[in-house]
Amino acid sequence: MNGRERFLSALRFEEVDRPPLWIMRQAGRYLPEYRALREKHSFIEICKTPELAIEATMQPIRRFGFDAAIVFSDILYIPEAMGQKLEYLDNGPRLEPLLESPQSINALRSPDVSSDLAFVAEAVSGLRKALALETALIGFSGAPFTLAHYMISPRSSRDFTAVKLFAYNYPAAYAQLLEMLTAAVGDYLLMQAQAGADVVQIFDSWGGELSPFDYETLALPYVHSLVERLHGGGYPVIYYVNGVAGIARQAASTGADVLGVDWRVGLADLRKTLGEETVLQGNLDPALLYAPNETIVARTHAMLDESGGRGHIVNLGKGITPDAPVAGVEALIEAVKSWRRR
Predict the structure, then answer these.
(1) Considering only the top CATH level, what class is 3-338?
(2) pTM of the complete model
(3) 268 by DSSP, 3-state: which?
(4) Per annotation, catalytic residue among 29, 155, 264, 299
(5) Angle in degrees, CA 57, 29, 303, rounded to 5
(6) Residue 119 and residue 117: Cα distance in Å, rounded?
(7) Is 341 marked active-site?
(8) Paired residues of 140 in beta bridges
(9) Residue from 4, 6, 25, 271 carrying the catalytic annotation
């Protein structure tokens, strides 16, 4: 099987010769060739220049032969297209002006993603040609709640009080914002799928910060709507939730084809809760890549023993860290290739 065949078969819970593998943020600063690219071009320039985005996306495919590539971009171009100013600072991205009142929602625009984000479609289309039918191609977007967090909260993105208080104090305005985001994200993901992505991933990087009750109210309905819309076009969906343990049943109820999970939950436990044929993605701790090779191999094999290998897309439970050793990634790849079903 080639990588694309392996990836798409696993997504459908079909038999594969080995579990497929890709890594969130696999194109990035841990790679020497990416650092060389950044010496010549800014992050924004790479994202918004299709030829450069294609080059960044292809770098880990050339080096490692991952089974899937994910288009090099950023989740915050949706808020930018809606009218917020986006800057990338040393301590992270900043959107301005922050949304602080119901009136601030009215200042946003409904983007025309086919023109506002055309550079992403061009990159996806070029990648489809570059990858041919050998490697799967993933498009992506942030989930509505996760995007709302960045649009409302101060630069300290780990403080989730602001987005929750906005939702509690201004429920109608919050719903208006989430509906706008859901429409824009849906258009965006459909554009990527139509440009050649085999599957799209919705990143709910902060969904796990919500209580089960708040998740069902503030996040779930909008993701469910997105999945329905994408399935209506015949496109499969991966839904990744960081901190999924407390809301796993609800997250699975979105109907996504694959549930991407972090390392704080066991795959066997999830299968008992969600059903034995639930397709899962994950879920190694990114810190494992710094461990000795024999530890990486042992832990990877233990994870695969737990999942059984079928219906499992191997990944980290979060994006790879910028200073992760390339040798750790190589050990992970060899561990996946050397694993045998017992």
Answers:
(1) alpha beta
(2) 0.97
(3) helix
(4) 29
(5) 80
(6) 5
(7) no
(8) 201
(9) 25
